[in-house]
Amino acid sequence: MARRIMRRVGVLLIAGAVSGPAFAHAIIVRTSPPQSGVGPADIGKVEVWYDAGIRDAFVALAVVSATGERIDKRDAAIDASDPAHVTVGVNALTPGKYTVRYRALSADGHIVSGAWEFEVK
After folding, report:
1. Measured CA distances, 20 to 12, 62, 84, 104, 117 (Å)
2. 51 with 29: CB under 8 angstroms?
3. pLDDT > 80? residue 24
């Protein structure tokens, strides 16, 4: 009887190891202002939400004007109450197009990066 129970436990342990949690690269699920959207001149900050928490080691969020000038406050930070939420401060923006560049370290250890645009009218 004990041997049969041990076999079942062993099978369950092996099955759990094989089908354990699968980590995937972080994916953006929401941004403010929205990707390809319009934001107000007095937005105050740019935000991104990932599908899962990210690690602090390589977090970056930069806002660049159409002329290539970086206009954020260089204070990108992960929200202490939501590790999937990152913000960066910006001063009042003038009308035009802006690019937001992001970089994050996923829970699986991979760095994800990219960019999106928004416009201020």
Report:
1. 11, 35, 22, 24, 37
2. yes
3. no
Q: Which of 60, 107, 111 shows the shortest CA–CA distance to 86?
A: 60
Residues 5 and 42: their CA atoms lie apart, in Å, by: 65
Position 20, amino acid? G
The residue among 64, 67, 30 whose CA lies nearest residue 47 is 30
pTM equals 0.77
Map out the domains of the chain with their CATH numbers: 23-120 (2.60.40.1220)
**pLDDT value at position 106?**
85
Biggest alpha carbon–alpha carbon distance for the chain: 76
H/E stretch holding 19 reads none
Average pLDDT of the chain is: 84
Structure tokens of 9? Answer: 């436990």
Sign of CA dihedral 80, 29, 74, 94: negative
Q: Are 89 and 73 in contact (CB under 8 A)?
A: yes
